[in-house]
Every structure is written in structure tokens, then in C-alpha cells.
Amino acid sequence: MISMRTIVAPTLVAASLALAAPALAQDDADSWLPTLMTETPQEGFDLAVSMARKAVKTTQPDVDALHKLRPAYAHDPGSLIDVSGVVAEYFATIAEANDYWRE
């Protein structure tokens, strides 16, 4: 049996990327994300978390709705694991862009 999480999580990620596409076409001066380059892995992880948060705000710009829905997922281990997976994917992309911080 396919769980709702199996369907919803990839759909949300795809939707967030699709909705963010116009932002990717902006000039660097107007971009909230001008580069994936970071000095350290910690900065890379922080950027990955910021990207995940931005994806949520992009897909649900209504702050009141976000706050209203938060109790439904804040204590759901599956939802928290899904978020960790999204951050991990973003971090992997950032790490690759930074050549894994090799010197």
C-alpha cells in the first residue's frame, strides 16, 4: 500500500522547484540565492536549511496558514524525516558545487 507521505513529499518538492523556476531567471543582484558556493561545510548546511525554508515559503506564502498547519506536522516523525531528506538533497547539491570543500 502506498502511503500518503510517499505521494505528498515528492509532489511538494516538485511543486516548490516549479514555483521557484521564475526566481532562478532573475539577475544575481535581485536573487536571494546568488551562489551555492560556501566557505565551509557548516555554511553549506546552513544554506541547505535556508533553501528548504524558502521552498516552504514559496509554496505557501500565507504565513497564517503556515502557522495554522505547523501543529499538524511539528510532532509527526515522518514529516520531520521528510524535511531532513529535502535538506540532505540540497546539501548534497551544495557540497558538489563546492567540490566537497577539498583544498
Automatic annotation (TrEMBL):
Superkingdom, taxonomy of origin: Bacteria
This protein's record includes keyword Signal: yes
Signal peptide: 1-25
Pfam families xrefs: HTHP
Keyword annotations: Signal
Keyword Signal in annotation: yes
Descriptive protein name: Hexameric tyrosine-coordinated heme protein (HTHP)
